[in-house]
Protein: Pentapeptide repeat-containing protein
Amino acid sequence: MKRILRSPLLWTFVVSLVLLLAVGGWLLTDPATSRSEALKTGGIAGGAIVALYALWLNDRRRRVEERRQEVERQRQELELRRADQDRDRISDERFAKAVELLGHEADQVRVGALHALAGLARGREVYKQTVLDILCSYLRRPFEHPRYKDTAKRDGNAAPEAGSAEQDQELQVRQTAQRLIGELLPAADSEGNAYDLDLTGAVLEYFDLSERKVGKLLLRYAGLYSSTNLSGCVFRGPVYLTGAGTEKEKRIGFFRCSDAKFEQRAWFSGVRFSEDVEFRDTVFAGETSFKDSVFAKDAVFADAEFKGTLDLRRARFEGFGDLSFRKPPGTVSLYNTSVEPARDHELPAGWAVETLPDGRARLTVKD
Structure:
């Protein structure tokens, strides 16, 4: 009974009926108003109350529906957040497990862990730099192999010297890590982020980053055996190869870096290139240094462009030097820059080879 008395619909009908009777009765007191007119006017007044109730009820339903939709939206957002948290948790667990397996004794398990990390980086962009850091740290681990003892690059198709089973297995794991680094880096002409690589002191063989975009690259005191291909790369950050190839067990083989672009500093000071070097059509936009570097064989800089300074102090060209730059540097340092006097070098306009009394030769710039 109390529930019925609280019903807005009941009171709407009661008020409507009372208003019908009140308006009709009041109009009937006027002799000029007919009974039908009084009833019609009273009905309109009562109907207005019902109409107002209908409008109120419709507005209430609208607000209830809006609240329901808001609750549904919040529920969906909560589910999405939970799904993201679950995905993050699963990704973190996969990441931790893969990193743990990198220390496994079996080489196939370590290879699988590397692929798991690479798959995680491909699926979650936020992991890419972290995964690249881990791959680089794996390659920075000390590594020795008999194939690296006597030469930086084998002649022809000569088979490399075999190592122990453990050394050969570890070599396969390391080459997998190198390949995955190249695959994870974005293409040179792509938009978006550029990722840093720290390979300080690493021992690498057939290292290939061609046509890739790199942020900061560190290869200080690294060994780059057989061949290294950086052709077509775009380096958004500074590049440092200081002292690479100078240690007994860390040499540099054939080094290709043609048609590349260094947007910031390119530091090759103190590097010993044991094999041919190519910087053909490469653009050096920032400071560039080959100070104290040694080019044991041919060094080709044909059509290279230097937009900043070039430091060649105490550099040694022991083979043929092609320095026919497309655009020579505005400022160049040539103090004791030696060349092989028996070779016919290609030089920029205004440069010359000066033969010294002891039979050596050095580069000079004519006044």
Summary: The mean pLDDT is 83. The helical segments are 2-5, 8-28, 35-101, 107-123, 128-139, 165-184. The longest helix spans residues 35-101. The first strand starts at residue 195 and ends at 198.
